[in-house]
Amino acid sequence: MNHAIIVTDSTADIPEELASKYDIHVVPLRLMFGEETFQDGVDISAEVFYKRLVQSEQLPTTSQASPADNMDVYQNLMNMHPGCPIISFHISSGLSGTYQSALLAKSMLDDPPLIHVVDSRSASYGFGLMVVHAARLAAEGKSAEEILSSVEQLRQQRKLYFLVDTLEYLQKGGRIGKAAAVIGNLLNIKPILSIDEEGIIYAVEKVRGRKKAITRMIERFKEDLGGVQKINVAIGHTADPASADPVLEELSRHYSLDEVVLTNVGPVVGTHVGPGTLAVFIWPS
User: Fold this and answer.
1) Would the CA dihedral through 104, 105, 111, 112 be positive or negative?
2) Which three-class secondary structure string do you get for 67-117?
3) Dihedral over Cα of 232, 64, 21, 79: its sign
């Protein structure tokens, strides 16, 4: 039986131990500090990145993997595993051109029907959890069609919210205006953000103070999940795992926690949201 092979890009922010355990192939995006170029998750760690980000006067720039990068990965996998389908998951097309780059890579190969390119319509572990789920199903011998169907069901069940510690990076990246960022920072505004069905980031509501924002985020999860009693949770942090503790403590008061994943919001995503960001992803167990 030709088992499915799972590919993703580095913005999925999958912990290295999970990617290794489930044989997930990760295509790195690029990060540029001035003249220096780094491969996301390969030659710059989250810890080093966030220290450098705070010290840098100029916002680093990011670049998607090229069609050639993706094509090389696909071709190598097809050579090593002839006849095996490849499922390639990517950050929302509403946030990056990475998905289109992967589609172009597929079209340049000789046997594109074997490759399924998926627009996750999400970012960070919001689709990383989908990739891990797909890899587990692939290890069980599920077909590509079964995996894609199950992943879509999971995408619809998963809930996510995140908050940023400062509006500076959203402003520098052009997501919000300078005046809004200045006023928001002065008033200690912590917007609760999410990603809509089209894969676009939007503001859910604005709360003054980080503690209140976390409390409100938990309240929103309770509203979203209805009568669900047992959940899986993943928390993305910016090289500060202790920042997840208040969220886990509060969630454990309301739910039975099954799988718990702590992961870094990687350099490419971190460039646009900044240090102190906290992202929470929940899906029914």
Assistant:
1) negative
2) HHHHHHHHHHHHHHCCCCCEEEEECCCCCCCHHHHHHHHHHCCCCHHHEEE
3) positive
Measured distance CA(254)–CA(256) in Å, rounded: 7
Contact in structure between 161 and 221 (CB atoms under 8 Å): yes
Q: Bridge partners of 263? A: 236
Q: Measure the N-to-C terminal CA separation of the chain; round to a whole number of Å.
A: 29
3 state DSSP class of 38: strand
CA distance 240 to 222: 25
Full pLDDT tens readout for the chain, 285 residues: 579 999 999 999 999 999 999 999 999 999 999 889 999 989 999 999 999 998 888 889 999 999 999 999 999 999 999 999 999 999 999 999 999 999 999 999 877 778 999 999 999 999 999 999 999 999 999 999 999 999 999 999 999 999 888 766 665 555 444 434 444 454 467 888 899 999 988 888 888 888 999 999 999 999 999 889 999 999 999 999 999 999 999 999 999 999 999 999 999 999 988 899 999 999 988
Provide the b/e sequence for 100-124 (b: ≥16 CB within 10 Å): ebbbbbbeebeeeebbbbbbbbbbb
- Angle (CA) 141-142-145 rounded to 5° is 150
Nearest to 173 by CA among 272, 259, 276: 272
Q: How far apart are CA 275 and CA 165, in angstroms?
A: 7
- Altogether, the residues listed in the chain come to a count of 285
* Cβ-contact 52, 45 below 8 angstroms: no
Place of tokens 């692939």: 138
Q: The whole model's pTM is what?
A: 0.92
The token duo for 125 is: 């572990």
